[in-house]
Amino acid sequence: MTDEINSIKQKEKQKCTHYHGGGSEAVYGLGLIGAWIYYIGHATTFLEGVIGFLKGLFWPGFMVYELLQFLYK
To answer: Across residues 9-28, what is the average pLDDT?
Structure first.
């Protein structure tokens, strides 16, 4: 009986995997905070601040778009 329980526990341990995303989440998080500081810091009205907040969420898309425009020229 204990052999069966041990084999089941070993199979469960083998199924369990841990994902470590590396540093990409940290880079995105720092970029997000930096974008918010930049966009909201330059806002002169509340609406510009809200738009700056939304731009901060999508800063990688803006960066890739500008890079592709630069490379296309």
So the answer is: 66
Give the Cα separation of 10 and 8 in Å (integer).
5
Report the distance separating Cα 62 and Cα 56, nearest Å: 10
3-state DSSP of 8-40: HHHHHHHHCCCCCCCCHHHHHHHHHHHHHHHHH
Instruction: Name the 3-class secondary structure at 42.
Output: coil
**Any idea how long the chain is?**
73
Report residue 34 CA to chain centroid gap.
13
Identity of residue 11:
K
Q: How far apart are CA 71 and CA 10, in angstroms?
A: 53
pTM of the model: 0.58
**Sign of the CA dihedral 57, 64, 25, 39?**
negative
